[in-house]
Amino acid sequence: MKENYLGIDVSSYSYKNLMTHVVEDINEDKQSFIVAINPEKILTAQQDNNLMRLLNQATYQIPDGVGILIASRIKKGNIRERVTGIDMLEALCEMASVNGKSIFLYGAKPGVADQAKFNLIKKFPSLKVAGVLDGYEKDQELIKNTINMAQPDILFVALGSPTQEYWIVDNMEDLNVNIFQGVGGSFDVLSG
Ligand code: UDP
């Protein structure tokens, strides 16, 4: 269920459908990668083939921009609902807390992910947070070991775009995680 805008695939699933697919992916032990697509990323990718390939490599490209809704109407597509990165993060946390799945927060300045964790647990009291790690740790082996030892079902990566998306595709094979989402500055927002 994808539509294509200037070479970039965008998923036309609603939140509800996306959540159903994500839960299935976890239960079937599949790996999937969620990326938020906005008009800015679509434009940047026009001059950057690697970025275009990377965005199209994701399992679910969520429509994070009103421009995409407008384009979909014009092309008589089915994308009617904006799905922002931070809303998707919260929807995944809610799904995780209902289904007993766990999350890991990786990225942002030291202390920020801890505060985001605190605020997420306030909102979803039964949410299992397997771990947090700031985005300025440089030791890649330590990062991967920390995540693998925590065994989360869902990993949110907040390193800024497209660094976080490149990091996800470069490392997902080594990580024992099912769902990956690049979330940009979301931890900063959630920690406030
Ligand atoms: N960041 C990080 N490590 C780095 C560089 C950036 O963890 O080496 C974090 C930064 O602290 C911020 C996020 O990445 O929390 C980037 O946020 P921004 O709003 O710039 O990203 P965008 O949403 O524009 O992709």
TrEMBL record:
One of its GO terms (molecular function) is N-acetylglucosaminyldiphosphoundecaprenol N-acetyl-beta-D-mannosaminyltransferase activity. It catalyses: UDP-N-acetyl-alpha-D-mannosamine + N-acetyl-alpha-D-glucosaminyl-di-trans,octa-cis-undecaprenyl diphosphate = N-acetyl-beta-D-mannosaminyl-(1->4)-N-acetyl-alpha-D-glucosaminyl di-trans,octa-cis-undecaprenyl diphosphate + UDP + H(+). Its EC number is 2.4.1.187. Pathway: Cell wall biogenesis; teichoic acid biosynthesis. Transmembrane segments: none annotated. It comes from the Bacteria. Keywords: Cell wall biogenesis/degradation, Glycosyltransferase, Teichoic acid biosynthesis, Transferase. One of its GO terms (biological process) is teichoic acid biosynthetic process. Catalyzes the conversion of GlcNAc-PP-undecaprenol into ManNAc-GlcNAc-PP-undecaprenol, the first committed lipid intermediate in the de novo synthesis of teichoic acid. Belongs to the glycosyltransferase 26 family. TagA/TarA subfamily. This is N-acetylglucosaminyldiphosphoundecaprenol N-acetyl-beta-D-mannosaminyltransferase. It comes from Virgibacillus profundi.
